[in-house]
Amino acid sequence: MGKKVTRIGVLTSGGDSPGMNAAIRAVVRTGIYHGLEVFGIMRGYQGLIEDDIYKMESRSVANIIQRGGTILKTARCKEFLDADGRKKGYENLKKRDINGLVIIGGDGSFRGAVQFSQEFDIPCIGIAGTIDKDICGTDFTIGFDTAVNTAVEAIDKIRDTMDAHDRIFIIEVMGRDAGYIALHSGIATGAENILIPERKTDIHDIITSLLEKERRKKLVNLIVVAEGEDSGGANKVQEILKEKLPNAEIRVCILGHIQRGGSPSCLDRLIASRMGFHAVESLIEGRHNVFVGILNNKMHYIPLESAVKNKGTISEEWMKIVKILAS
Ligand code: F6P
């Protein structure tokens, strides 16, 4: 058991994700409910280092549960990778007697928290907030559901025009290291091919199947590509396909950051509220250096370190479904 937690800080770090505001709200209000003082740290680890920290009240988080982005703002902070930067951050917490920290972010943010907690006596609790869903040990990460639904809505619209013109469309979704957005949105929109970083892209296989479809006059084909897939993304795939399929009309659409914005879905608001609540409860109970995950609808506390080291795996069953349903 560590020291009793009395004053906590909360920050959002890395790429923002819809639902982060709902998580901040839950942390602030649960903390205040338990008699803790809660401090908001602006722009993630950057604000921690620069002492951009302010006291939050229950009203500070009014009317934000439905808003995308993050009221605390966020950053990818290089300075926190250095021991000097982390020390500055620690001193800023120490001078306010902040003795617990909630970090809402993805694997990069958790990596920072692991280093910080190894060096200083501040218990850290992570909340998985990333649209990429690339954190092992939880069925959900805040923002994924909203992002994937944004992608589905956009792809459905593209399908209308794609169908009207008998075209091949290559749609790039986010996911530098993880293919979950591509896989989920691709299956949900009936994509013929889904290219993800976790699998080697077999471009020859795609060309063969497109040529075969051309022969039987199936000219409408949807290819969903995660930005981190290994042939180089949608533009590169288009270049290769154009060369081999000179008669085909091939268009590209890169969905980009629209996937990160917008009002969070009901699911994201719910998981954010539950995770925020349990993050504070677990700090009070004396847990440290874990993140709050949900597995089979139950809360789990997973060492921050293991989230950092492990990536989730894509099941073969899903890949088989893509192949069979696309025929
Ligand atoms: O946070 C996840 C993510 O959206 C990735 O899917 C994407 O590769 C990256 O962030 C983009 O980051 P940035 O907004 O810094 O360009």
Give a short overview.
The chain is α/β, with parallel strands linked by helices and 327 residues long.
Topology:
Elements: E1 7-12, H1 20-33, E2 37-41, H2 45-49, E3 53-56, H3 83-94, E4 100-105, H4 107-119, E5 124-128, H5 144-165, E6 168-173, H6 180-188, E7 193-195, H7 203-215, E8 221-226, H8 234-244, E9 250-254, H9 266-284, E10 290-295, E11 298-303, H10 304-309, H11 316-325
Parallel strand pairs: 1-2, 1-4, 4-5, 5-10, 6-8, 6-9, 7-8
Antiparallel strand pairs: 2-3, 10-11
Helix pairs in contact: 1-9, 5-6
Bound molecules: 6-O-phosphono-beta-D-fructofuranose.
Order of helices and strands: EHEHEHEHEHEHEHEHEHEEHH
- Largest sheet composition: 7 strands, mixed
Strand order of the largest sheet: 3-2-1-4-5-10-11
Structural class: alpha/beta
Annotated CATH topology of the largest domain:
Rossmann fold
Give every kind of bound small molecule, once each: 6-O-phosphono-beta-D-fructofuranose
| Shape, principal axes of CA atoms | elongated
Q: What is the radius of gyration?
A: 22 Å
Number of helices in the DSSP assignment: 11
- Mean pLDDT rating: 95
Number of DSSP strand runs: 11
Task: Report what the structure shows.
- With 327 residues, the protein is α/β, with parallel strands linked by helices.
- The chain folds into two domains: 7-143 and 264-309, Rossmann fold, CATH 3.40.50; 145-260, Phosphofructokinase domain (Rossmann fold, 3-Layer(aba) Sandwich), CATH 3.40.50.
- The chain is built from eleven helices and eleven strands.
- It has a seven-stranded mixed β-sheet, sandwiched between helices.
- The longest helix is centred in the middle third of the chain and has 22 residues, at 144-165.
- Bound molecules: 6-O-phosphono-beta-D-fructofuranose.
